[in-house]
Q: What sequence folds into this?
């Protein structure tokens, strides 16, 4: 009997190919949308994590309270010792020292007079020690537009947009005018080694990147850093793992009244990122829910129509002596088969598309030029374990439920009408 | 008529609810139908022919009275038991053939045997036998769309006969056929009737069918007005 039904399914394209194609499309779109939304969330988190927040960030207690003002006078001192301890106690984490600073970039003319000047947000990160973690985290090599990365002390990277604004080219000298850790004026000359495009509006408008030791020299921050950022080894923000790190850190460095004592904050606790994560998650979950629901309705309807189309076949089968429950069961088996095949193919297709965009991304930088918040310009999908089964909700469940509902009509069918119904 | 009674009907009434009350389709039918009969229930539209066929075929149940088919009271059958009776002992032939279009001739005829869960070899033999009775062995692999109306009805008869049922119920089996095909089909059914002693019961108002009947039961307004044995 199963073989007989299978033959029917395979030969009747409207009973097999059409529903399978509908299921494939629905499932593929569901999986892709889910991965897309997860990707947006992940990209937004990781962008903020890479450039600013880390998965966790360690600062002094006072620095943490005034972090918006970049108070380098409250920076962590004795960083070397602290880092050794962090690396020993948290082998699952990668740590990096950073100094955020603000200042003016002054561009002199041939006579040493100011030719152009602009406010800059600076990052002091490790560029020259040979550890390439921060270079990769900031994606500097791929972001390079002109020139090269710094290879010597005294070199600076400028955002392309900023360099164009100040009419500065690689090889030119610029002067950083800022304030030292101790509050005195800092003037330090750098040679522009290259320009970069971050792909995010705020970063591209006026950023400079300098090797950490050069910033320390300029701002008198010997063995000090404003922040130590920590990243989970797999580079994906995981709230459970991060919570574990925080608990352990707090046991190693108990809270005290010392305003220079190190404190740890998570990505969620910075720059309203927690709220943003929750909102994106909520919007994403809602969008996925709506989409899954609408796909479910489509596939449910397909199941319903499939049942109605075979009204006369079921009539014949009833008349010949097949009982209601047997016909109903065979309908369910068919829909399980179609739902399963469609869901498997649709999920595979959705995952393949997602996999491509997970690696290559979709460049929307032209649309993000005027963005004022830190948003990724290249969107990637993100495949999570949920992506492997979410398509089965509309693909299998809805198809089967649709068929089950349409099949109820079989039980309502009056055999007494069969001769009349089958006349036409 | 042979002696063995297959169908016994006493005081059979069938009502259908209508907006203004109820419509009486069958109004006190008393009948017995024996083995190997070639009987027709004849009458104008609305006389109750199909309703009577429905009850004999366990597709419907009486409102009043008794209908006993092959020893089973139709009123007492639940849907599963009714389906079992149809599946094992009754064959149906419809006006519009009602073959399953995606299946071949062989598969259409095989379908009732699949419901009886017979093994492959036996099934194959029974299907081929049935098609041979109907002269359709050369069309085994054809689909219904590739057959003429007459051939389709032959396949439908083969499907009804394949399990060698006790009773075959045929509702206007020649209504969609031309005269030549009608006669062919009727001759075939008459042959099967005499060869296998299968009881055939027709619902018809077609004179061509009536011409082949050995017993003609006339119905008017749900009542038997004439029950006539004929010498065909």
A:
């Amino acid at each position: 009997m199963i073989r007989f039904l299978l033959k029917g399914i395979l030969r009747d394209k409207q009973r097999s190919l059409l529903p399978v194609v509908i299921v494939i499309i629905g499932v593929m779109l569901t999986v892709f949308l889910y991965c897309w939304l997860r990707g947006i969330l992940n990209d937004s988190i990781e962008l903020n994590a890479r450039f600013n927040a880390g998965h966790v960030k360690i600062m002094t207690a006072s620095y943490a309270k005034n972090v918006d003002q970049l108070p380098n006078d409250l920076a962590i001192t004795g960083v070397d010792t602290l880092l050794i301890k962090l690396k020993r106690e948290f082998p699952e984490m990668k740590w990096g020292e950073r100094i955020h600073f603000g200042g003016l970039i002054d561009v002199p003319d041939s006579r040493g007079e100011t030719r152009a000047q602009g406010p800059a947000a600076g990052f002091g990160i490790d560029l020259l020690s040979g550890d390439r973690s921060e270079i990769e985290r900031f994606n500097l090599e791929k972001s390079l537009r002109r020139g090269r990365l710094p290879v010597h002390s005294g070199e600076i990277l400028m955002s392309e947009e900023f360099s164009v604004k100040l009419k500065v080219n690689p090889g030119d000298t610029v002067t950083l005018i800022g304030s030292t850790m101790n509050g005195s004026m800092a003037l330090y000359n750098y040679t522009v080694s290259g320009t970069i495009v971050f792909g995010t509006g705020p970063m591209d408008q006026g950023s400079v990147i300098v090797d950490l030791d050069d910033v320390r020299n300029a701002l008198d921050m010997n063995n000090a850093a404003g922040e130590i950022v920590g990243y989970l080894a797999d580079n994906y923000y995981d709230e459970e793992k991060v919570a574990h790190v925080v608990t352990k850190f707090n046991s190693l460095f108990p809270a005290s009244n010392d305003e220079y004592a190190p404190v740890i904050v998570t990505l969620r606790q910075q720059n309203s990122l927690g709220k943003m994560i929750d909102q994106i998650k909520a919007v994403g979950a809602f969008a996925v829910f709506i989409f899954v629901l609408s796909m479910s309705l489509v596939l449910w309807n397909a199941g319903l129509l499939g049942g109605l189309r075979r009204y006369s076949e079921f009539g014949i089968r009833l008349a010949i002596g097949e009982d209601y429950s047997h016909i109903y069961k065979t309908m369910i088996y068919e829909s399980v088969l179609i739902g399963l095949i469609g869901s498997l193919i649709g999920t595979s297709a959705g995952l393949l598309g997602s996999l491509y965009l997970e690696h290559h991304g979709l460049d929307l930088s032209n649309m993000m030029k005027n963005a004022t918040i830190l948003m990724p310009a290249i969107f990637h999908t993100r495949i999570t374990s949920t992506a492997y089964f979410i398509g089965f909700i509309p693909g299998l469940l809805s198809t089967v439920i649709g068929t089950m509902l349409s099949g109820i009509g079989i039980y309502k069918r009056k055999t007494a009408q069969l001769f009349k119904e089958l006349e036409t | 008529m042979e002696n063995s009674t297959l169908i016994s009907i006493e005081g059979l009434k069938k009502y259908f609810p209508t907006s203004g009350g109820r419509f009486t389709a069958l109004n006190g039918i008393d009948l017995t139908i024996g083995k190997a009969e070639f009987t027709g229930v004849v009458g104008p539209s609305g006389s109750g022919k199909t309703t009577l066929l429905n009850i004999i075929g366990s597709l419907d149940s009486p409102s009043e009275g008794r209908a006993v088919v092959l020893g089973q009271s139709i009123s007492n059958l639940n849907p599963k038991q009714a389906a079992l009776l149809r599946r094992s002992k009754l064959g149906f032939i419809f006006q519009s053939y009602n073959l399953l279009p995606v299946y071949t001739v062989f598969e259409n005829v095989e379908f009732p045997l699949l419901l009886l869960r017979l093994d492959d070899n036996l099934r194959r033999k029974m299907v081929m036998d049935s098609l041979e009775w109907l002269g359709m062995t050369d069309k085994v692999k054809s689909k219904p769309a590739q057959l003429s109306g007459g051939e389709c009805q032959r396949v439908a008869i083969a499907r009804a006969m394949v399990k060698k049922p006790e009773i075959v119920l045929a509702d206007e089996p020649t209504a969609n056929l031309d005269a030549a095909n009608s006669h062919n089909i009727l001759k075939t059914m008459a042959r099967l009737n005499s060869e296998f002693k299968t009881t055939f019961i027709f619902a018809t108002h077609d004179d061509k069918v009536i011409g082949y009947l050995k017993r003609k039961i006339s119905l008017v307004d749900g009542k038997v007005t004439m029950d006539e044995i004929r010498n065909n």
